From TrEMBL:
InterPro entries: GDSL, GDSL_lipolytic_enzyme, SGNH_hydro_sf, SGNH_plant_lipase-like. CDD domains: SGNH_plant_lipase_like. It comes from Turnera subulata. Keywords: Signal. This is GDSL esterase/lipase.
Amino acid sequence: MACKVMIWFLVARLLLQILRIHAKVPAIIVFGDSSVDSGNNNHISTILKSNFEPYGRDFNGGQPTGRFSNGRVPTDFISEAFGIKPTIPAYLDPMYNISDFVTGVCFASAGTGYDNATSDVLSVIPLWEELENYKEYQKTLRVYLGVEEANDLVSEALYLISMGTNDFLENYYTALGRSTEYSVDEYQNFLIGLAQNFITTLHNLGARKISISGLPPMGCLPLERTRNLLFGEDCIEEYNNVAKDFNGQLLGLVTKLNRELTGIQLVLSNPYDILLQIIQNPSSFGFENAAIACCGTGLFEMSFMCNKRTPFTCSDASKYVFWDAFHPTERTNGIVADYVVKNSLSQFL
C-alpha cells in the first residue's frame, strides 16, 4: 500500500513538473496593497483587516479571507485567466505552505505603499519587508524544487505589482503627510524612484516578466466623494489628475527599464480608463450604483467600519461598482482583470 502511495506521489510530482515546463507563466507572484492583498494583514498587528463578515460573503464558501472585497481580487482572476488557479494564497497564512506557493503567492499588505512612511500610518507591512518575505520564499523554493528548477520558475513567473493609491490618499493628502516635505510633483518623482529601485531589485533577484499597475481614478472612490460633499459629491478632479500624471510617469519608467535591464519584459497595467468608464457609465456594464458602496451607507465604511452589524448593507453586491468606500466589488474586479489581461498581459499568455 505504501509503495502505491509513493508511486502516485511521484506521478503527481512529475505531472506538475510537466505542466510548469509547458506553461508560459507557471506562477503568479503578487506585491502591493489592499487592491491585491489576499489575507496577509490577518497575521500582523494592525487595525486594517477584513477577516470578518460581510467581507468575503460571495467568496467560495462565503468565508472572509482578508481580501478587501465581497469576493475575489483582480490578481485571483488574472491567475485563473492564465490557467493556473482561481485564487492566490497569502504568504503569511499558516494554512498554506511551499507546495501551495509554487504556482502563486501573495506578499501584499493592505495599507502599504512605495513610501515606507505610508506603511507606518496603519502599521502594515512595508514594501521592503514584502521583498524580504519574497527572498525567504526563494530560498524555500530552491530547497523544495532544487536550485535549477526553482530558478527557472522565478524567471518564468509573472510578477504583479499594485500600489500607490495609499501613498497619496492615506499619506500625502493627510494633515501630517508628505505634503509638508514635497510638492505633489516632487512626491511623484520620489515614488517613481522607489518603484524603479523595487523593480530593479526584483530583476536582480531573477524576475523577468513584471507588470506594474497604474493608479485608479482615486478621486472617484466613494470615500473621496464623501469628502467632497460641498461640491455635490462629484469626483475630486485634483486627485484624478494626479493619478493620470503619475500613470504617465510610470509609463516612462516602464520604457526606461525595458531599455536598461537585460531580458526584462515590463508592462504597465493601467486600470484608470476602464474604471472611469465603469464609474461614469455604470448601467452599460450592468451596474446600478457607482457613487456609493454596498456596505453600510456606502459613504465612508471600510475595514472594521464595514461589519455584519453595519445597517443598510446592500443585498446584491453585483449591482454596485464598489464594495466598501475604498474597494471595488468582486464583479468590478473581474471586469478590470479581464481588461488588464487582454490589454496589458496578453503577451505573457
